[in-house]
Amino acid sequence: MVIVFKPNASSEQIQNVKNYLLNLGFEYHFSEGKEVTILGVIGDTKRLVPEYFLKLDGVSNAFRIQETYKLCSRTFHPRNTRVKVDNLVIGGNDIAVMAGPCSIENESMIYDIAREIRRSGANIIRGGAFKPRSSPYAFQGLGEEGLRYLRAVGNETGCPVVSEIMAISDIPLFEQYVDIIQIGARNMQNFALLKELAHMRKPILLKRGISATIEEWLNSAEYLASKGNQKIILCERGIRTFENSTRFTLDLSSVPVIKKKSHLPIIVDPSHPMGQSDLVIPMARAAVAAGADGIMVEVHHNPAEALSDGPQSLTFKQFENLMREIRMIAEAIGRNIASNEA
Amino acid sequence: MVIVFKPNASSEQIQNVKNYLLNLGFEYHFSEGKEVTILGVIGDTKRLVPEYFLKLDGVSNAFRIQETYKLCSRTFHPRNTRVKVDNLVIGGNDIAVMAGPCSIENESMIYDIAREIRRSGANIIRGGAFKPRSSPYAFQGLGEEGLRYLRAVGNETGCPVVSEIMAISDIPLFEQYVDIIQIGARNMQNFALLKELAHMRKPILLKRGISATIEEWLNSAEYLASKGNQKIILCERGIRTFENSTRFTLDLSSVPVIKKKSHLPIIVDPSHPMGQSDLVIPMARAAVAAGADGIMVEVHHNPAEALSDGPQSLTFKQFENLMREIRMIAEAIGRNIASNEA
Amino acid sequence: MVIVFKPNASSEQIQNVKNYLLNLGFEYHFSEGKEVTILGVIGDTKRLVPEYFLKLDGVSNAFRIQETYKLCSRTFHPRNTRVKVDNLVIGGNDIAVMAGPCSIENESMIYDIAREIRRSGANIIRGGAFKPRSSPYAFQGLGEEGLRYLRAVGNETGCPVVSEIMAISDIPLFEQYVDIIQIGARNMQNFALLKELAHMRKPILLKRGISATIEEWLNSAEYLASKGNQKIILCERGIRTFENSTRFTLDLSSVPVIKKKSHLPIIVDPSHPMGQSDLVIPMARAAVAAGADGIMVEVHHNPAEALSDGPQSLTFKQFENLMREIRMIAEAIGRNIASNEA
Amino acid sequence: MVIVFKPNASSEQIQNVKNYLLNLGFEYHFSEGKEVTILGVIGDTKRLVPEYFLKLDGVSNAFRIQETYKLCSRTFHPRNTRVKVDNLVIGGNDIAVMAGPCSIENESMIYDIAREIRRSGANIIRGGAFKPRSSPYAFQGLGEEGLRYLRAVGNETGCPVVSEIMAISDIPLFEQYVDIIQIGARNMQNFALLKELAHMRKPILLKRGISATIEEWLNSAEYLASKGNQKIILCERGIRTFENSTRFTLDLSSVPVIKKKSHLPIIVDPSHPMGQSDLVIPMARAAVAAGADGIMVEVHHNPAEALSDGPQSLTFKQFENLMREIRMIAEAIGRNIASNEA
């Protein structure tokens, strides 16, 4: 922590701050300049709150200068983390393509979709069984039945499967049926849930909360890492801003920022923020161009009938075209689309 | 739902949309104007997603025109809800004052604080035992021990007590020790938790998520109401914006907006968003002037030692002054500070 | 500026940064700790950009630690600035009440409104003659004709008048007709305009831009002050956030924050952000309770006919009630409503 | 405009609203449903303000359903606008690459940079001569001298040149020296400036305000178009959000959204929002992948010395690599980088 004094701070005021720190067991470096006088606090400053010092006479400002996460910081772990799921590696040179319906509606639809997108090159199948809904009156998902279908389709296609968990009590189901456990945006700071999932051995896909700073997001990842599970895949899915022509503002700049601050892989979900399939496609391409380690897109065999998720779901044809485009974009930056062939 | 057509939409395109709705079992009113042609959909449009229609040829826009919450809407329940807690009524003419430390640190401190603020006029005691922390390395609260102290102090002072719950597994503890169960901002859309708390008989204090619209907040209240618990007290505690000179931007305008849209009581917590006690005081006064049904403020017997919560905690003296000021402000708008004397 | 090194920064990397600063003519204090090594730069660091250092090897972070404004900072000018307009003083113990129509529509209406609000206690008359409109097709104001009516009504009632300027070429008109020159939110960073207005002798009312940080707002005030005009009144009028149930989010916390950072007076306009008169009233009360030096509200003799500005304008009756309430609230915090009686 | 009634609105209340509209000369379509009763207003509803109706008894909501811009809307002009500048066409299949220093510092540097980036494939030269600065104490640009250098370098390289205008009084200079006139983010709603620039024959590059919705941005373009200049190029440059790890949040989703709503070309400036060159590069690639008609990036011959703009400026080497990557990305989506060879 750095404490900055006012230009006119008296020596009593400065001494006061020094004594305060000494009493708490901290040391400091003191630096008195013509224009600015500062004091650098030495010790475990995570216990200190910058705002506290703002209340003391003579203090003009106080800053925290260290990140509060360690295990997830590139500073301490310069090399990329590679998360293995079956034959796939997420976070290496290959790009993961997670695709599938928003919600699993019935058995046949998830089969139809999975086979078709597998053929176009998707390498992980997504599908929602427990759905977080703003309104209590909206469809809440098929629950365990949905997970069972998803597992079966994963086995048939040879693709790992990913689905969102919402409650600690569902952990045994996800242990049984799912390969990658997704924590949704609304639960990014559900610390009770994070602490329990940290004890699972499976990879965790941690979505960014809609109002989470990158700092907070990495701190939530640190909850998982510090309690035992470092197989973490981050997923950008849009933040809340004033702009309302899209549902959320997809913050693609988080991709290079995360790459700089952390060693964890990061993928992008353009479907939820964009809300309409013709807007999803260009942003999926942009995600790959920005350096994401993967994308997660919604695909549906008949978007016109999938009333609740239809608008943002790609058709098979749209998905096939998208795969062709992102293959070329990946190549332009020296990467490949991952293949899960044995 | 209202669907707006493009000026140059063909009659085939319009017929297409009509057929689509008829197939789904909806009726509509059709209105063709010189400048604008619109179609009002009749039926349970909660099943429909506006974005879907934006994909259809000839459609220029689609709007939802009904609120998605009912039980919490003033439209359907014009009279104010009054939540009773012991002798207090929240949501009537009297103003609740919830005060106490951020975290319960030990037994004696919560006693000291409670007695003192009780004397100045606080009528409900707050204190955190389970603390949601961005970083896994920060102090997470005393847990059950803290709740036990809180209960004892409530019994001694005759004030109801309020504390935050973070996990479903802690419900039995809160059932035993606490009078008002607080759902924190980070859990406003933890639907698994909301569903369980809806089965409790105790009043729920529902804080606004830092990026929740008022619409989403009322939908979370609707989760509680629709599943059985209508004793809901809303609590504004600041939203996340670009401004960083305060921790959050206290959105006091939510007070009159909620009063217009809903019959539920609303209180304001100025301590967390403001972060420094000298900024908390004016905003606590402003909350009362804006028509809030109560305030929730942090008070500490020795803010200088309460390093983690110190900066935003009022001293006893500051709290006493604040009480005097808000008594006069309440009077200016025809209200009173609640008293929990038998 | 403070430069923070990575824990594993090499001594070459650190030396590199030191050399770089020395070459540019800066000195520094170097502080090497067990956990953190920092370097405090001495000299006129306004020339340095923190992001630059983030590109250098071994650097983990860089912060600016000084405010970039001086004349408007309370650090250097601890005493409140009091802006005199005729017999009124803004920024002292008395509270200014600026009221009037959004736009001056014709001569008789501004007379009717001014007389009535004067009677209820308004002490400054506002009225728009040049209107900033998002759409080129919306009514753009009466121009000079409007200013002439405003001047006449100011003379008759004995109240100073305030109106918004939009173009440098209109300065002579404002010199002639208006007592307080308003810079609107959209022009807060129109630096060409700020530089010209700095040469006027009249007080300037500087509205906060809808996405301006408090830091940027004070820097815009510094443009005025540094070029010759220190008679500045700040005006909070709402910021843009994700919440859309009000037009803007009135950031009342800027009142105590500005009071802490600056010696300039600050008033609040609740009419534009709230958009509906029944929401304006509680927020006007809250502004006074928060410590504002004044309010600016729209009043209209017949809001139902003033289609463009009607929704947010108070009726005479509403304004009279509001005056009664804020008198009592002012008293609760030891202040008064200003009177412009000679 | 659509007016929605409350479920329990009385027939008197509804009749009241109808009479009101009839008195103002509007007609309406009335639609009474089991759940919802609505009224579609017919006529030039731009005169009406939705909030007004919210004040009337029995009204639950009111929406504007038409865009307020016409000339810039794709609805009325389905074909892409192509803006010609010398031999280049912006808005067709080819992608424009505008590059150069943030500020023109002296004659030799702009020559050095221009020649080098021209060789790598830049087709338009950018350079700032009048700089908008938050602080009055920061370097404000070389003014006319800078424009003169820029013109000379444009002539030598055969590339059109673009620079930002800040004041109406500078129009003659820009008429003389510059090929594309840039309106900066801070002036997007400087309506006095927009009105004057609309009379120029030269293409206008209109940057998005940092808190402007896409709707407001297109309305500012409408100011230009409706008053005579339709040669408009939009430029996304980041919006203000809560995230502070980048200067602004580059809203790349505005690219496909603008393409849907408007026929105007749109380019992207990743330099200003990202603030550091290693973050600029991936976002420049992403912009092309998202479908932008061009990019604008800062390049400097010696970023380490360009203290004020250094951090975000690319080196020649970085720019050359970027050009190679975006050529391949353009190809992946069936486009080309524009060439300004005769």
Short note summarizing the structure:
The structure is a homotetramer of 342-residue chains. The first copy, chain A, has 342 residues and is an alpha/beta fold.
Give an overview of the whole structure:
Four copies of one chain form a homotetramer. Chain A folds into two domains: 2-63, 2-Layer Sandwich (Alpha-Beta Plaits), CATH 3.30.70; 83-337, Alpha-Beta Barrel (TIM Barrel), CATH 3.20.20.70. In chain A, 34% of the residues lie in helices and 19% in strands. Chain A has helices at 11-23, 50-54, 107-120, 144-157, 171-177, 191-197, 214-226, 254-261, 271-274, 277-290, 316-332; strands at residues 2-5, 27-32, 37-42, 59-63, 83-85, 88-90, 94-100, 124-126, 161-165, 180-183, 204-207, 232-236, 266-268, 294-298, 336-337. In chain A, the strands form three sheets. In chain A, strands 7, 8, 9, 10, 11, 12, 13, 14 and 15 form a nine-stranded parallel beta sheet that branches. In chain A, helix 3 runs parallel beside helix 11 (316-332) and helix 10 packs parallel to helix 11. Chain A is elongated and about 75 Å long. The mean pLDDT of chain A is 92. Chains in contact: A-B, A-C, A-D, B-C, B-D, C-D. Chains A and B meet through helix 2 and helix 7 of A and helix 2 and helix 7 of B.
Q: What labels would you give this structure?
A:
alpha/beta, 34% helix, four-stranded antiparallel beta sheet, 342 residues, 11 helices, nine-stranded parallel beta sheet, Alpha-Beta Plaits, TIM Barrel, elongated, homotetramer, 2 domains
